Amino acid sequence: MKFPGDFLWGGATAANQYEGGYAEGGKGLSTSDVMTNGAHMVPRRITWKLPDGTTGCTENRFGSKMEFPEGAVPCLLDGYYYPSHTATDFYHHYKEDIALMGEMGFRCFRMSINWTRLFPTGEEETPLEEGIRFYSDVFDECRKYGIEPLVTLSHYETPLSLSVKYNGWADRRVIDFFVRYARTCFEAFRGKVKYYLTFNEINAIDVIPFIGGGVMYYDDRVKAQAAHHQFMASALTVKAAHEMDPDVKVGMMLAYQPVYALTADPADQLFAMKQMDNTMFFSDVQMAGRYPDYKLAEYEQKGVQLQTEPDDFEILKTYPCDFLSFSCYGSTTVTTHTDVDHGEGNMFPNAVRNPYLQTNAWGWATDPQVLRIALNQLYNRYHKPLWVVENGIGWADVKEADGSVHDTYRIDYLRANIKSMRDAVNLDHIPLMGYTMWGCIDLVSAGTGEMRKRYGFVYVDRDDEGNGTLERSRKDSFFWYKKCIASDGEDLD
Ligand code: BGP
């Protein structure tokens, strides 16, 4: 069994975790630039200053609300380390990195554009030439190797100025700023970029609103409103893309993990179903073009009243996304029972440990069937093309003296996941556009801000305190993935 010859094999990154050059080319500050490093059990922090000069920081503790004091302005403070500032320096290494991707046989490279590299505050009328030039050069470099860029317009960063001035996506005016930015990209990168994603893991707005949308102050109503604004911005971006360039396709991006009930107890089954609804709500709006009844009922019960304009629902219906892309690292298991071990994973609260699955050092479970299950669930609901744009395993890799990295655990993970995806394509006939392994060149972890949680095929010499030469070296998985791509996914040995 193999994948079709035009399957888009590749890797994925995000500017805030990879690009660096945070103060170069006139770039403005993003929300991610004021986030410190953390560790598995140590939350990342957002540093700020009050009008009276008092300074402090707010923790991004997963699952609990972020509280900023009234009037706090996130800013850089001495004595803190901000990993996005250099990250793994794609800004100065892009030629070398894209050559490594070419060597592996990549047909696609997922990256994000830093909104503030084009519009430093998000509100300028015209973009910075230097920013346009940088990304143009990157796309030209990709083309040299026959690599198709897949560009995320907003990956966990909002211009900081929009966050301070408007409370980020909580304010409807941000829609227009975003659409102007998107239109600028369609115009500037015409013929160079065919595939775009609007918001990375759009469901993040509900779980981590500051990271997902620069929202500092929130309750249930504000989160719902911010989500609505992102939906509108995404639909208007699809509209703009289709009008400006019929070759461009715009996808949505969902953090997706199939939710399993720990037991056959019907209460657990219902609980798992409801957890799944929290995720599917976002794709129901962006792919099916309508707010699902279960969400409207929930809003009514919570007293959440959305502020909308008369054409909003018609716009959502008319401009759904062209394809559905998603991240999927494993499955999530939940239960209503209390005598169980807590679990961890990507973005999903309430997880418990699944006794059938193994986890990495950060508690994320590896599920060998997960992509087949996810692809079937999503395709059977929307009947639209799918794209796996994040999947992979974080590990504290060790580089040997000769530069080699023996990441057998990563090869084992990828073998199982790619096989599961191959079954979905061959046995279930799921139309799958491509696969971009997360963090193909080592980069900063979004959740912990660490370097030691590595995902790449390529090791980057950089540690958690910002030391290291940034030298690149090929891990064992580099050669394995190259062989996998060359055989169209048939050779997974
Ligand atoms: C997803 C994000 C990525 C990425 C990945 C791995 O949620 O879209 O930005 O970082 O998860 O997570 P982490 O970096 O926390 O290991």
Q: What do these coordinates show?
A:
The chain has 493 residues and is α/β, with parallel strands linked by helices. It has 15 helices and 17 strands. The protein has helices at 15-18, 90-104, 115-118, 129-144, 160-166, 173-188, 204-207, 209-213, 220-244, 266-288, 293-302, 312-318, 370-382, 408-427, 476-486; strands at residues 8-12, 44-49, 55-60, 73-74, 108-112, 148-154, 195-199, 249-255, 259-261, 323-327, 332-334, 358-359, 365-366, 386-390, 432-438, 458-460, 472-474. Helix 14 links the parallel strand 14 and strand 15 (432-438). Helix 2 packs parallel to helix 4 and helix 9 (220-244) crosses helix 12 (312-318). The protein is globular and about 55 Å long. The model has no long low-confidence stretch (mean pLDDT 97). 6-O-phosphono-beta-D-galactopyranose binds next to loops.
